[in-house]
Design goal:
Length: 390
């Protein structure tokens, strides 16, 4: 076994313990106070200088090596989801209605584990490593405000890396893809205002619920009738609220949804396309409307050179045959914001096994051994990228 694998193995129990302790205290977006306190304390115990309170609960530990050089950033999310856990695990969530159902507990344990192992090994490297923990990845997004507050500067970051547990790939594999990996993701809300009244007298009303159903149907035709079928695109309406009783015509309807695409032109065209349809339907039916279209995350695009090197780090950890090229996904990630400014790579860590629950499921869990693979990839990245001060 290599020195690195041995060093990781010595921290094995601790890495798993951290994951479980974090799993017990899940906090959804922008409430990550305990979680941030936990990771800051772990970094401080390693004598790594820590900044807290960045973009509310963001935490950054910066370890500088003796020689000047490049800076590598390892990023984890802090936030959990508003999901009521049903795993029945002995270390299940202690916070009712909240759960680390996207594996961010594992992500934190891997970044902290890498910090521990690199401190243990104390390799003669150059430059610096930033251990970054950001809030609110699940929305509205903590990466952009973290960048606005200088997370990529002082010292200037040269390479950004992130790992995400990925049930779509088998356990023991690592997925690395050049170029676009995850889609641009936006959110929209539509408020339709009609005129309510007696269910028997539609001629005296403007039925907001019925108009809402027209909007839902027509929005589906953006993808089926307006888009190039060779370009993947998604319009999903996830919420539709209207009506109060069986015999009352609804005066208002509220719809909200999300769009996904890999194409910049399509991305920039969503708001206008949706507005054209909603305004046309509402005008024809005599209703008023308001559309709030909120750009979310850009496309997550991995840097080719970093992705190539990442394949070597992963191959050293799991063997060449277990380094795969994952399919693109219409899921979105605010890691995209870091990649817009700095070359880097977002890596999928296979977490798939028979009957694995998907991410965001109340049953999501994974084999903790894969955390050691993640730690190894992070450590190999640092050992490779910070070898020289060029
Ligand atoms: Zn998620
Ligand atoms: Zn996630």
């Amino acid at each position: 076994m290599s020195d690195l694998k041995e060093a990781i193995d010595r921290r094995r129990e601790e890495i798993i313990r951290m994951r479980r302790e974090l799993h017990r205290i899940p906090e959804p977006a922008y409430t990550e106070e305990k979680t941030a306190g936990y990771v800051a304390e772990q970094l401080a115990r390693l004598a790594i200088p820590v900044r807290t309170g960045i973009a509310r609960f963001g935490v950054v530990g910066t370890h500088r090596f003796a020689q000047p050089g490049k800076t590598v950033m390892l990023r984890s999310e802090l936030d959990a989801l508003p999901v009521a856990e049903q795993t029945g695990l002995p270390f299940a969530s202690l916070h009712p209605g909240a759960m680390h159902a996207c594996g961010h507990d594992g992500h934190m344990a891997m970044v902290l584990g890498a910090a521990m192992v690199l401190r243990d090994l104390d390799p003669p490297l150059c430059g610096a490593i930033k251990f970054v923990f950001q809030p609110a990845e699940e929305g509205p997004g903590g990466a952009a405000p973290m960048i606005a507050q200088g997370v990529l500067s002082d010292p200037q970051v040269d390479t950004v890396l992130g790992l995400h547990l990925w049930p779509g790939l088998p356990e023991g594999t690592v997925g690395i893809r050049n170029g676009p990996l995850m889609a641009a993701m936006d959110r929209f809300d539509i408020h339709i205002k009609g005129k309510g009244g007696h269910g028997a007298m539609p001629h005296l009303c403007v039925d907001a619920l019925e108009i809402g159903t027209q909007v839902v149907g027509a929005l589906q035709r953006i993808v089926s009738r307006q888009m190039n079928p060779l370009q993947p695109a998604v319009v999903t309406i996830g919420e539709f609220h209207a009506g109060a009783a069986f015999n009352i015509i609804a005066s208002e309807a509220h719809l909200s949804g999300t769009t996904r695409t890999f194409d910049t032109d399509i991305w920039h065209s969503w708001a206008e396309r949706i507005d054209r349809i909603v305004s046309g339907i509402c005008a024809s039916m005599g209703a008023e409307y308001r559309l709030d279209y909120r750009p979310g995350y850009p496309v997550t695009i991995n840097d080719e050179q970093t992705a190539r090197r990442a394949r070597d780090w992963a191959a050293a950890a799991v063997g060449h045959e277990s380094v795969l090229i994952p399919e693109q996904t219409m899921g979105g990630e605010d890691f995209a914001f870091y990649l817009q400014r700095t070359p880097g790579c977002f890596i999928f860590l296979g977490a798939g096994r028979p009957n694995v629950a998907p991410l965001h499921s109340p049953f999501f869990d994974f084999s903790e051994d894969i955390l050691l693979t993640g730690v190894e990839i992070y450590c190999r990245a640092a050992l490779d990228l910070l070898r020289e001060n060029g």
